[in-house]
Amino acid sequence: MRAIVIGSGIAGLSLALALRRVGIDVTVYERAPQLTEIGAGISLWANAFRALDYIGVGAAVRAASLPVNLSEFRTRNGHKIAGSFRTASFEQQLGTTPFLAMIHRAELVALLSSFLPADTAHYGFDCVGAGTHGSRALVRFKNGHCDEADLVIGADGIRSAIRTTLFGSAKPRYAGYTCWRGVCNRSSTVAAGYLAEWWGRGRRFGITTLPGDQVYWWATKNEPAGGRAEYERAAVTAAFQGWADPVTEILAATPAEVVLRNDILDRPPTRCWASGRVGLIGDAAHPTTPNFGQGGCLAIEDAAVLARHLSNRLDPESGLRSFATERFPRTTAITNESLRFGRIGQWEGRSSTWGRDTLFGLLMPLIGSRSLPKYAKFDVGPHRSLS
Predict the structure, then answer these.
(1) Residue 209 to residue 16: CA distance in whole angstroms
(2) Which of 141, 189, 250, 315 is most deeply buried (CB count within 10 A of its CB)?
(3) Superfamily of domain 2-172+266-386
(4) Of 274, 283, 278, whose CA–CA distance to 156 is shortest?
(5) 210-248: per-residue pLDDT in tens?
C-alpha cells in the first residue's frame, strides 16, 4: 500500500513515520519551499509521548524536550497565586515520564523529519485538489504535477486544501480573542521547568520554558477578528501594563521581529473527515483552541491510530472510516471543552471575573488534580505492527 500525505508539519511527519512503521510506503508533499515551521513552543503531554513511543521516536523527542516540573495558576493579573502543582505526582499516577514537556515547534518538526528517508518529503508542491477515482486516490498541484496512491491524507492544517476540496471552503470559527506569542532568553526570574497561566479581565498571559534557556510566552486579549498593529510587541506590552513581574521584563527581552500574532480559531466538530480514499487528520480534521495544549498531541495520536486502522484493513476506505469513528468522541470532547474554558478565561466584566477568580481559588486543588491529568492519561493503545 502507498499513501500520499499533504503537509509536513507535526501531523504529516508523525503520520509518515507511523505509516512506514506498519509497512506502508509514504510520500509527503509540502507547499513551503523547504522544511520549516513557524510558531514558538508546543506542549507535549503524556498522551503524546505514549503515541510517539508507538511510532518509534519517543526517546528522541524526550531527549530534545524540557520537562515541566511546576505548574502554577494565578489570577488578578498574575498578582494572586490560586494554585500550584508539581508534575512528579502526576507522573507517578500515570506511569509516564514526563507528564508534560515543552519543545520549540521548529525543533520538533526537524526531529521528526530526521527519522524519515531524505527522499520522503517534496517541497514547493502546493496542493489544489484531490479525489477518488476507482481504486486510486489522485492529487493535483499548482505546478502541474499529479500523483496517485492507494490513499491521500490531508495533514495541512486548519485551512486545509484537502478539506476544502472535499467539503467546501467554510471559514474557521473565531473564538473572540487574539494571541501574541514569542520566545526570549531566560533570566533568573523564571525557573527552568516552570509553566504558568495568569488571568486578568479579558486577558491572559502564559509563561513557560524551552530547552536552551529560553522562555516561551503567550498573551491573549479580546479583540475583533483580523486586528493587527504596526508594532505588535508594543501592542502587547501596552495591553499588559501593570501585570505582575516578570511580564514586562519578558516582553522587553523578546526581539520585536519574533513576536507573532494570530487570531484563535477552531471549527465546530463534524464527522466529515474522509471521502472515498481521501481523508484528514490533525487540525485539518478537528482544529481546537489551544487552551489545553492538546492540538499537537491530538495530531500525534491521530498518526498512531490511523496507522493501526490501515494496517488492519486491506481497504483504505474502511480504514479511514473506522479511524474517524474511533477518534471523533475524544477530539470532539477536547474541542468543545477547550472552547468553553477559553471563554471563561476571557471574561472581562468586573463582577464576573471577581466571582470566577474567587471560585477558582477555592476549587483549584480539586480542579488541578482532576483536570490536568484528564486528557493526558489517555493511551491510543499499542498494536503489534507499531510495537
Answers:
(1) 29
(2) 250
(3) FAD/NAD(P)-binding domain (3.50.50.60)
(4) 283
(5) 999 999 999 999 999 999 999 999 999 999 999 999 999
